[in-house]
Amino acid sequence: MKRWVLLLLLIIFVCIPIVYEHDHAELIQEMAAKEFGYYHVYVFWDNEGAEGSSLPASMLRPFDSEDFRQSLHIARLQVVQLNPQDPNYRYVKVFEMKRTPTYVLLDHQKVLLETSEIEDILHYLYGDATWLRLKREAKPGY
Asked: N or C terminus: which one in the chain shows less Cβ crowding within 10 Å?
């Protein structure tokens, strides 16, 4: 009997991470850009405690212009409001979001950048990786 219980526990602890990894990979694939050379930007926003229910315009200001987004090859800019009762809340669990807004930049395969500052996306797309590295070193827990 004890062996069966141990075997059952072993199976459970092996299967749970596999299911989580599958969900994570599946979600990333859904979010990723469909074409090589293009990007998708997701803005995750929790409006609880904020005035009004919409995202403040200042949080998207650099991407106001469709022409500007196209010049950076951003095929999609999507705002996702987070609510624990909403199916979108799975994003919080997958990305382990601690605060909002959270900006996520993806190419056709993977997450390239996850940040709480929209300017970081611009720096990344302009190829300013040095600026991002220095910023991370200066801010512990970034």
From this structure: N
pLDDT tens-digit readout, 52-79: 556 677 777 878 888 988 888 999 998 8
Mind listing the pLDDT tens digit for each residue in 42-58?
Answer: 988 876 644 455 667 77
Fold classification of 32-138 (topology level): Glutaredoxin (3.40.30)
